[in-house]
Amino acid sequence: MDKDTIYQEYGDFIFKYLFTLTNDFHSAEELTQETFYQAVKSINNYHSNGKAKFSTWLCSIAKNVWLQETNRNNKKQQLVTSLSLEETKFYDLEEEYIRHEDVMEFFKKARRLSEEKREILYLRLLGDLSFKEIGTVFERTENWARVTFYRAKLELRKGE
């Protein structure tokens, strides 16, 4: 039995089986292709064993392929969750000034900045505006607002 014949004879059956596992047409298609790729690679294992029906053997490969994909997706999601939790642990000057510094001291330091930098600082920290919105207020670019804000933070640090 060649690989084209195998796919023609069992392709729809395996696709439907995988579709019941995934409930996703696109995923079932991709997993079906991977199932037949794995089956062709290990066809000698089936011939040497020969105890199970061919369709059962293909279903076991399909299920393993699906489980591997599920595990891979779970690991990706765990990594994304882990990284997003780590991001919140990093030092964040904005958060520090709002939470840990005496508010009056913050405003005293901010008064030493140029009017433009002070306004950008207030819009970002107190107004909770995005850099794009700040750029729009000043009729400048988002990048300009981001760089100016960064420079204002550096000046605040120097004044400590």
Helices and strands, with pairings:
Blueprint: H1 3-22, H2 25-41, H3 43-49, H4 54-89, H5 93-99, H6 103-111, H7 115-125, H8 131-137, H9 142-158
Helix pairs in contact: 1-2, 1-4, 2-4, 7-9, 8-9
Largest sheet: none
The structural class is mainly alpha
Shape: rod-shaped
Q: Class of the largest domain, according to the CATH hierarchy?
A: Mainly Alpha
What kind of oligomer do you see? single chain
**CATH topology label of the largest domain:** Rna Polymerase Sigma Factor, Chain: A
Rg over CA atoms: 30 Å
How far apart, in Å, are the first and last alpha carbons?
78 Å
Please give the domain count.
Answer: 2
What fraction of residues sit in β-strands? under 5%
- What is the percent of helical residues? over 70%
User: Can you give the mean pLDDT?
Assistant: 81
Order of helices and strands: HHHHHHHHH
Regions with little confidence, pLDDT below 50 for 5+ residues? none
Number of strands: 0
What would you say the CATH architecture of the largest domain is? Orthogonal Bundle
| Total DSSP helices | 9
Organism: Sporosarcina newyorkensis 2681
InterPro entries: RNA_pol_sigma-70-like, RNA_pol_sigma-70_dom, RNA_pol_sigma70_r2, RNA_pol_sigma70_r4_t2, RNA_pol_sigma_r2, RNA_pol_sigma_r3/r4-like, WH-like_DNA-bd_sf
Protein name: ECF subfamily RNA polymerase sigma-24 factor
Keywords: DNA-binding, Sigma factor, Transcription, Transcription regulation
